[in-house]
Specification:
This protein has 510 residues and is of the alpha/beta class. The chain is 45% helix and 14% strand. Among the domains are: 48 residues, no CATH class; 305 residues, TIM Barrel. The protein starts with 10 loop residues before the first helix and ends in an 8-residue tail after the last helix.
Length: 510
């Protein structure tokens, strides 16, 4: 190709190439799916939904909070003799109809705004890893607040990651309120993309609102453009609410914060070993949380976070990288699309401890199927290792490279008279005998094809001449370069001073 690097000859061809490139840029916040993977038939989805409704009506949810009980009873729920909250099927169906089917996900910079809806896939980080694979020693150590900030800076440069959800926890911050405050601050200091985190207590959400307002530009501004979501695990499987997370969810509703409402049953441990049973349970638990949210505030921006997980039944440990996990992730995503509600599921959760071959095939399998499910959001999609216990800068940039190819798969193949290329084939057959110099090739080379940033396509000899670096080494070089050079001032100094006068911020001023 290097011998055919001239631009297309005609002005029309150049304009068309420019339009295609701009179209590619405009889709960067998310990929509209033309290719989908559906492990469930429509009848299967109907049966799973019916089973979920049956579970909610007859088994119900344990441990509802007083606010939830009061709200739910007023809307038609009942309490069983053993104090479980029962949800009538018609009420759940009404809450599904009431739920937001699409909404804007705001960045702190409007350039990072994007639409949440089914049929459009977005890739997000996420997790709560307590260890980092050190970029210098390649050994695991406890994760720190500075790691979180550095990961945010790194993701700020990665075009395939739309949403920065906290991948690691700051193990060096002990106080719970200071932990929540500094987590939000470190994320916002590193990127102006949409950010997300969990909160330990509902009261912390209210206490952090002045920080969010300050970052948004003033009192009341956060609610206008809520650039931060809460990841609220509202359910302890099987079929029990998590009271503290419900309090966080209610507080988030009060301040206008979007909610990623999660439930994470593990097949064979906290959910049935039968994968269909796990899907029925995860849908029931997710719909219970979704119903509560929409009882309190109809249409509140919410992602249906049906994170159906797998246990390795030989040990009982969580396993994130197998074929069963890929199927469950895709099926859970398909169920979100069945409800028409933007959904989130976990994928890319390799069990490997290193960014190696195992990590590659497990991540590619789970991410691809989840992305093609039609749900909307794929979390844990970059950087995670060791069954979510570990995180890595190098894995983050490798996974971003991989996601570019997965997004290309999701776009599918456009078939029309022009792309069928009959005239182009005739011209080449009667002319040059190859397509390298054809105008169509130049026009499409940056829209029809994706080129890896790290994956090596050179010959063995050229690879050796260039130092014979594997992808981990290449990712180390790229990560260190980004972290050394990309030091944006995401928080203006005057606002930073006000924040530091109000809260104890552990990261040093820039």
């Amino acid at each position: 190709m290097t011998t055919h690097s001239t631009r297309p000859k005609s002005r029309a061809a150049r304009l068309k190439q420019k339009a295609l490139q701009e179209s590619l840029i405009s889709m960067s916040p998310g990929t509209t799916l033309n290719t989908t993977f559906k492990p469930l038939s429509h009848d299967d989805a109907e049966k799973i939904h019916a089973a979920a409704l049956d579970l909610l009506a007859t088994v119900g949810m344990a441990s509802p909070t007083p606010r939830v009980i009061e709200t739910a009873l007023a809307q038609g729920c009942t309490l069983s003799d053993n104090n479980r909250l029962l949800f009538p099927a018609l009420l759940v169906e009404a809450m599904i109809e009431r739920a937001a089917k699409e909404f804007t996900v705001f960045g702190r910079d409007p350039a990072f705004d994007f639409e949440a809806r089914t049929g459009k896939v977005n890739f997000c980080t996420g997790g709560a890893a307590v260890k980092m694979l050190d970029i210098d020693t390649h050994k695991y150590r406890p994760s720190t607040l500075n790691d979180l900030y550095d990961l945010a800076r790194l993701v700020d440069t990665l075009e395939n990651i739309q949403w920065f959800a906290r991948p690691v926890v700051a193990t060096d911050v002990d106080d719970l309120l200071e932990f929540d405050v500094n987590t939000v601050y470190a994320c916002a200091a590193g990127t102006k993309k949409h950010i997300a985190t969990s909160f330990t207590l509902g009261e912390h959400v209210y206490k952090i609102l002045p920080l969010l307002d300050a970052l948004a530009g003033g009192v009341g501004e956060f609610k206008k453009r809520p650039f931060c979501s809460v990841h609220a695990t509202n359910v302890v499987s099987p079929m029990s609410f998590a009271p503290e997370s419900l309090d966080v969810t209610c507080a988030a509703i009060d301040i206008g914060m979007p909610i990623h409402s999660q439930t994470g049953p593990q097949a064979g441990a906290t959910a049935p070993a039968a994968l269909a049973g796990t899907l029925a349970q995860v849908c029931a638990e997710g719909l219970a949380s979704l119903s509560v949210i929409n009882m309190i505030k109809p249409g509140h921006p919410t992602l249906l976070g049906s994170w159906a997980f797998v246990s390795d039944l030989r040990t009982g440990a969580f396993s994130g990288g197998g074929g069963e996990q890929a199927l469950l992730g895709a099926a859970a995503g398909q169920m979100s699309a069945f409800y028409g509600i933007p959904g989130g599921m976990g994928a890319g959760m390799t069990d490997s401890k290193l960014p190696d071959n195992q990590a590659g095939f497990e991540k590619a399998l789970t991410l691809s199927l989840a992305a093609l499910s039609g749900s909307g959001f794929v979390f844990e999609s970059a950087g995670m290792l060791a069954s979510l216990l570990g995180c890595s800068f190098e894995a983050m940039v490798i996974d971003d490279d991989m996601i570019s190819s997965i997004r290309r798969v999701g776009r599918g193949i456009e078939v029309n008279d022009e792309t069928l290329s009959v005239d182009v084939i005739k011209d080449v057959v009667e002319g040059a005998g190859h397509f390298l110099g054809a105008n169509q090739t130049y026009e499409l080379m940056n829209s029809e094809f994706v080129y890896p940033g790290l994956a090596d396509r050179s010959s063995p000899d050229d690879w050796v001449d260039a130092g014979a670096k594997d992808i981990w080494e290449q990712a180390t070089i790229k990560s260190k370069s980004i972290l050394a050079k990309h030091k944006p001032e995401q928080i203006p100094k005057d606002i930073d001073i006000k924040i530091r006068n109000t809260y104890k911020i552990y990261l040093p001023p820039w």
